Amino acid sequence: MTVCFFNRLKRFRFFDIIHNTMRFSRREVLQLSGITTLVVMLLPRVAFAARNDLTSVRTGLQPGGKTRLVIETTVRPSYSLSYPAGQLVVTISNTAANTALKSKLASGTLIKSLTQAQVGDKLQIIANLNKSIGEIPKNQIFILEPNGDNNYRLVIDFTAGTSGVAQNTPTTITAITQQKKSVIVIDAGHGGKDPGCIGKGGTKEKDVVLSVAKKLKNKLDVAGYKTYLTRSTDKYLKLAERAELAEKYKGDLFISLHANANPSRQMKGFSVYTLSEKASDEEAQKLADAENAADKIDVSGFEQFSKDIRIALSSLQQHAVAEMSEEYASSCTNYLKKASITQQPGPSVRHAPFAVLRSTVPGALIELGHLSNAGEEKLLKSSDHQDKLVNAIVKSISNYNFEV
User: Fold this and answer.
1) Which residue segments constitute the domains of the chain, with CATH numbers given?
2) CA 399: distance to chain centroid?
3) Distances from the Cα of 294 to the Cαs of 188, 286, 287, 343, in angstroms?
4) What is the pLDDT of residues 108-126, one digit of tens each?
5) What angle do CA 217, 223, 229 make, to 5 degrees?
6) What is residue 270's DSSP assignment?
7) What is the pTM of this model?
């Protein structure tokens, strides 16, 4: 009984609670096994964090020579970093080591090997480095929310040297001309016989998004990107055709522009979505159903897509593409909010099975606002507000890493 009780104490951390808060010795704690129930009743209520599991560890190479470390866990990680000589140590609370897990190491990074160590209830991921690094700036560390087949991902970018910031990395969007030109495919939703949603004042979604798409293309062209529109006129395109164009143009990023409608005339604000086979919420699913209904495609049985698009769907579920889509969507949301553009209440980034996003190209669907809201309808058709939206999206693209 004493052994079982001791194991149970270790598992739920009662051992340390009793030892530390009630000042019993460890031997005395074991002697309390006969009054387990009383001890538990006397203890204050303690909130125990959900146990976390490690599901993946991988590295990648980013533009500017940055090394990327991605640690994936089932629960949002609580972490800290330390910098012993020749190492980067990531400590994650309330997480068990997964020694059966094989790390995926990309070539050309600063990480030559990765190991795991269990320290109490904390997991340490130890990256053995080829070169020394300094403290990594906070803006180069972020957590991506679950998306599709992905769990929570702690993403850490760093370079050699004392600053932790890449040297000679282009910091302005004009510097893109010195690198390989990233390809942006801009999709103006709906078109032709499909007007999309229509505001009370008669504003059609297809017209608003085409205007914004053209402005966005012009701005990105000036910034040095290579851009394509899925449609430049009032033309109807099936959703699969739009996804195929993203593939045809070998896009590095696919942005589908839309305007929203809601039964509540009070609802307003932009929202950003990425592809997931399971919607993040009921509203996201309803929106996906409405958008997908544009050409009657049954997104549950994607046999109706061409072979290439079906292959693309499988590819999109791979970690790299899903991560890049999520990263861009998060960045886009932040820059739209920084531009003082109202965000629709709810999650920062939503997920749903949008047919138009089914390709191997990382992408997001941006609902620019609600035509069903009279005030926002006026904004969406105004040139000044469209420019405001475009400027924020351009900033999100210029600050986006195009490789994992």
Assistant:
1) 6-42 (no CATH), 52-158 (2.60.40.3500), 173-398 (3.40.630.40)
2) 14
3) 13, 13, 11, 25
4) 899 999 999 998 888 999 9
5) 20
6) B
7) 0.54
